[in-house]
Amino acid sequence: MAETPSTEKAELVVLGGGPGGYAAAFHAADLGLKPVLVEQEKRLGGVCLLRGCIPSKALITAAEFYERIRHADQMGIVVQGVSLDMPRVGAWRDKIIADLAGGLDLLCKQRGIRRVVGRGVFRSPRELEISGPEGSRVLAFEKIVIAVGSSTSLPALFPKSDRVVTSDEALFLDRVPRTMLVVGGGYIGVELGSCYAAFGSQVVIVELLDRLLSGTDADLVRVLRQRLDQRGVEVHLESRVVAATETADGVEVEVQPREGPSWKRTFDTVLLAVGRKPNTANLGLDKIGVETDPAGHIRVNSRLQTNLPHVFAIGDCTGQPYLAHRAKQQGIVAAEVIAGKPAEFDNRTVPAVIFGDPEIAYCGLSEEEAKKAGYRVKVGRFRFAANGRARTLGQTDGLINVIAEEGTETILGVRMVGPLVSELLGEATLAVETGAVVEDLVGTIHAHPTLSEALQEAAEAVRGHALHAARSAPRSR
């Protein structure tokens, strides 16, 4: 007869130790609550730290350095004999992960947060059964925050093989594949495809839709696509994989374009980057009556509560966009609501970055979205080719678009592609979030020479007089 798990009481349980979960637990502790943080992995950080954002940016940074060193002769620096040591790259990546995970563990202990390693499943609306290395136990809670995140989707078409990987495995390869097929032209496929192309792989991207990075402004994607072409990355749009078989030489794949004959090719590695799904199956949500949408996302209100007021949910498991910073902010809001504060998740915009080459970053409304929403807009555009700092970096591809409402000149959105635009996004997001007007950006002194001046000049261009751009009237719609 199975032993009955022991029952313990908790004021607040946070289920999941990713960016949203640990943010909720840390902030709840700062507000005087006593959270119990349940995570099935031994280290905190979730997919973002352990298998996503951080390791991918480490690899992307290494790839950028490698490529810039190889082309440093353009600056008069001649480097001979440069080589790539992937095991050492991996060791550097792993140290970054370990240092950050160790920091989270220390912060958790400093706050007196109790951690439980194990997988939690709802036993009742106020009980969570946890199975882990120390056996099974039941936590009876007053409130709970579900922060279980998402995981990669695996099409059944592909064979189970070490040569067929998701982003989880692609970030930890100990060698550079000679050839790589990337299935999916979203941000994961583009980021990792660009990265391995810089490392020296012959990369082919196959995308079902008629463009890469669906939902991203066409003029931004155009710049990135030109860079992919320069790197020799082969892109097949409106195409799908219809067969995949492992052979002695790799994975033989058959691709069917929307028009024309299919083609076959064998690749050393196939990267599946076709999307993610919420980790809400087998949690017992149906048992306790928590409402989900058809895709399995948990439905929440602006206070992050489910249809059961004591059950909260945050992050990827609540729907798109699947972004760590969205989860973090939701975790903070959920903690404040639980602590009795009048908080809501009501941000005007959730910024997004695609760490391709060059980077793409945006917040607020695109020009098309603004027009659909009924705004008459003015768009100010400024190209990095006219920015002094971009010139000194040798990275002049790209532009910034500032979308403003005609008349009020309220900044509705900012869309950027170019060098380090991820670092310019904070100012742009602040402008949208606070309802700033063009004059706020134009009248703010930006240090020279910096890339941030390009954002100021794009704002100036809304009025048709950016200092370092040819004089032209801004586009009005």
Description:
Helix 1 packs parallel to helix 9 and helix 3 (about 55-70) runs antiparallel to helix 4. The chain has about 475 residues and is an alpha/beta fold. The protein folds into 3 domains: about 5-150 and about 275-340, FAD/NAD(P)-binding domain; about 165-275, FAD/NAD(P)-binding domain (3-Layer(bba) Sandwich); about 350-465, FAD/NAD-linked reductase, C-terminal dimerisation domain (Enolase-like, domain 1). Helix content is about 30%, strand content about 25%. It starts with 5 loop residues before the first strand and ends with a strand. Strands 1, 2, 3, 4, 5, 6 and 17 form a 7-stranded mixed beta sheet that branches. The protein has helices at about 20-30, 45-50, 55-70, 85-110, 165-170, 185-200, 220-230, 285-290, 325-340, 365-370, 390-395, 425-435, 440, 450-460; strands at about 5-15, 35-40, 115, 120-125, 125-130, 135-145, 150, 165, 180-185, 200-205, 235, 240-245, 250-255, 265, 270, 275-280, 310-315, 350-355, 360-365, 375-385, 400-405, 410-420, 475. A hairpin with a 2-residue loop joins strand 12 (about 240-245) and strand 13 (about 250-255). It is globular and about 70 Å long.
